[in-house]
Amino acid sequence: MRFTISRQELLEVAGNLQNLVPLKPVLPILSHILVEAKGSELLFTATDLTLGMSCRAEARIEQEGGATFPARRFFQLIKELPHASVEIVAKGQTIEIIAGSSVFKLHGLRHEDYPHLPNFTNSTKIKIASTVLKEALWATSFAVSREESRYTLMGLFMGLHDGKATFVGTDGKRLAKTKIPLASSFSTNMIIPIKAVEEMQKLLSDTAEIALFLMPDKIALETEKTLFITKLLSGESPNYDRLIPQNSPITVNLQREELISLLRQVSLFTGEQNHAVRFLFRKGELLLEATSSEVGEGRVAMPVDFAGEDLQIAFNPSYFIDILRHSHDETIKLQLTDSFNPGLITDSSEALFILMPLRIQADS
Question: pLDDT tens, 239-249?
């Protein structure tokens, strides 16, 4: 195999594949990426046997073939090269990298032993605007659990029903949900691992249409030059709808940017053990308070359209700020039932957010 390729394109492709190369591979060959040259195109592949990605790139190919490259060392080398183009020659398991007067040799493994990515010939294909999917993933994935003890919560729920796709992320303390229209009558539920969701977001551009390929245990996302595949999480997803308050008699409109600023200020006075801020709603005013014997006391206030009886509830300020950052409107709506039930936060979009209250302690 012999080809010449732009260093910048090679760097971009190799960079896209880096997160899929495991630090402690179960098989030595998984620490490599597979490079195949055919016609005028290169195909780069990486997998950890759960996630997989193939990227296409144009090159001047003098000799077709395949080889495996030790991924991390190859990427580090390409980053350091100052040349505009790189020539690569593979002879057996030895890869020669030529850049100007510099010549480097890396040892690979048999490319015939590299695992094949799954075939999606018999899958269900759905086309969707990249920007629409990107927004849905962004609005919900932040709430997904990162705790390995909560297996099914470490993924983003995606349900396809009645011409809509519903996305839900939760860690048990907060929940984010949104819906987008779908030009398909296909019906299914799946849980996409959070690492896969994060990789998918990186691949989604602001203009292109993409395709999703769906199978019972896998999902693939295809862009113009990239195919990304992931296994789905097994197990039953929670009944998310029962977590959403159906009747919240108290509704307060809040200025989003002002509330973010005040929460950042008062959160500096929360304790390590109980990271809570008290929300005290009084006629025409919201007080935010935090008290800690370790730090001190903070109190801020903002005007609100509240006219009912005084209400006190506590929330994790970091979680509340996360939700506000993933809302769009200048004014958001907070719906409450009492001091002990979840708060429901919405804007003018399809998204909704649930935040569980915290127990109010004397030294919070």
Answer: 888 888 888 89
Question: For 138-171, how does the pLDDT look when each residue is reduced to its tens digit (9 = 90+)?
Answer: 999 999 998 877 778 899 999 999 999 999 999 9
The rounded distance, in Å, linking the Cα atoms of 216 and 218 is 6
Domain that holds residue 294: 244-355
- The residue out of 221, 241, 261 marking a domain boundary is 241
* Domain CATH for 87: 3.10.150.10
- In this structure, the chain runs to a length of 364
Query: Is residue 234 domain-shared with residue 265, that is, in the same domain?
Result: no
The domain boundary, picked from 241, 271, 286, lies at: 241
* DSSP β-ladder status, 102-107 and 124-129: unpaired
Q: What is the pLDDT of residue 364?
A: 41
pLDDT-wise least confident of 109-113, 206-210, 302-306, 340-344: 206-210
Residue 33 and residue 96 in one domain: yes
